[in-house]
Amino acid sequence: MKKAGFIIYMLVGATLVVSGFATTERGLKENNREMLYKVAEDYEELGDMGFKGFYPLDYKVAFSDSEKDVVVSYDGGECNYTKRDAVYGGLVGSIYQDGDEFEVVVPEYDTWITLEAVNNEPLSAVIWHEGFHAYQNSYHKVYEKTTQDVLSETELSEIVDSDNEAKRMFSKEMEVLSRIFTDENSSDVNEIAIEYSKIAKERRGLLSEQVAGSEDFYLMMEGSAYYVESLAVRYENGEETYQKEYLGTASKYVDGNAKYYRLGMLECMLLDKLDPEWKNSYSFDRTFEEVIDDYIS
Amino acid sequence: MEIVVNVIREKIRKKMLYVTMALGIIVVAVFSTDMGSLTIGGKSIKDYHVLLPILINVLNFLNGAIALAISCSTIPQEYERRTSHLIWSRGISQSRYHMCLAAGNIVVSWISGIILYATLGVFAVVNGYSNILGRIAMATVFMMIYSACICMLTSALSIRIPTLFTGTIMVIILVFGALRDALKLLTATLTGVGGAVIKRAVMLIPDLAGISNQAGNLVQEKPLNIHVIIMAFLVIWVAGLLVMILRREEA
Amino acid sequence: MSDIMVLKNVKKTYKEMTAVNDLSLNIKKGEVFALLGANGAGKTTTIKMILGLAKASSGDIEIESGAKIGYSPETPYFPEYLTGMEVMKYYAGIEGDKSKKDTAYLKGLLELTGLSDNKIKVKNYSKGMIQRLALAQALISDPDILILDEPTAGLDALGRKHNLELLKRLKEEGKTVIINSHILHDIEAVCDRGVIMKKGKVIDTWTKGESEERLEDKFVRLVGEE
Question: Are B85 and C71 in contact (CB < 8 Å)?
């Protein structure tokens, strides 16, 4: 009897081990796959957001556990994937150039979910953001076209964050641009654009050419990606989250690189107001400040 | 069976479950009424359907802590009081003896959990959500899996390890298990050999948060992750095996 | 009389310490046998090895096949929220023999040891009552061998007398009893034979009526010597 009981117990264990193995998700996990479906679903509503030829799932998406990447090609609901050693260590949302192709690299959903509870940014929005970078570099070849020596985000922030006057004026720029949604009825968009352009030029005079050029680069690259991301979050999580997480923080200066994301997004929003069609002729070869100047001159 | 019943009787007569009931009422009351406000991502959570998975997580964790407290000293106390002498001398094997004690603890933790969930049910009805009572009842299954994991692991450790160490190890497992997702996020930032080792160590911690999340999925009518449930049963099975094979030298 | 239990060269060591050293005993069926010795002589360890509560480091313990053992520990602990009858039912249940779970049978055992089936919880029992309960539960299986560790400790004079008479009755019923006691007067009153142990070894034997010397005097002479 005792022996029979032990045999039954071991059989139960063997069944659990086999079932455990059988239900282990290998390759593309279901919740990661769901994220791609989510982006595809968003796209049906959001479209290219005015950026001609932009579709985040045109690019391969690598879900990384920081040791292995599962690289997925999405094609009309079909997910074909391959595995490889992780191209980046740690927790990364970025793009990766493989030959001529740019790929999106994001953390796995299981890892991201905890962060999402804090920052309200769904993983699908990260795919939109990074997918936009892939678009910038594939469609508009931004990296290729960039000839000047761009400072890293860390180096740039260190320089700017230690210059009190530059900081003050940067904050001012953010405040002025924020009026496009805080003061919507009372302010003339052109007035905001003129005032913004004036401060921006004044501030530019405080910076070296390399610093100013680097700022332009990040405002264009990251600001527009943040703008795309914000619209995806607005669609997925609703107006309240959008207001709180994006508009609520847009006018706040913070040390580090986040301020370029915010100001760049505000520039895109201003351009939307100045001319809803501005993106039709924009190919990431000019700064947003220059484009704004076109409308006020 | 007598040993199992005796464990249950002892814990009940020592009024341990009163603590559970008081805890349950406080937690559920704080979350369900205006006394406390739960804010996630700047949003005040008042909707019971949204609140429920969070409450389930909290209650399962609390019941896990109760399961730990119940199980931590049961086996060592049997040997300290030498109750074991009158069991061993009757030819009861250590495997059976320890398993019966662990099973008794599991049943007590289930009773405790049912009390906690009953308070949740009462507050759901009071707040006009009697339609989710069925789902709350189904979610108790996951509470049972959760507390069985804790009871069985604690019992296994307590056979050979002093109570203080068992308690310390199990508190770590309970807390880390409940925060496994956050740990996963933290370790995801680690690189190199050290990072790989820590990541694997985290994988060894039972996914207690996962069990509660399945209960949350159940009440929100989302699909369940069968793998998480199977792995929880595997934890119980392994701990049960340890309860059966770990032995004391003397009664 | 045939041997019901034989211990051959039994040894028990704990790390550096030898608790029982090369102990050999023959216990005959139906006799009342005493294990005597000062504290730390190895008596309790010997009992634990006989009961299987501790494993002998070496040597053999042979017990007649099928012989049932009842045990009354020196410092018994019973769940304090139970009544005497509930304790009896608990242990009867563990033994698994349905016939022994009968309330009337268990009540009889309680009464045999001087207790009654009432609602008093163990936590309200005196030390003497707990000792009686320990003896009562040891009798549940109707054992062939009864091992009693300090069975009269904590009892008042009447209780001691009662227990000693009970032991005599059990002997008459043919039960083998092994007693570990410090109360040598009691041993002389009920035991047939015994061994005196010191530092884990048998240093002498004692048989009732073998000499004029009182057991107490012999014990002091042997155990007191260094």
Answer: yes
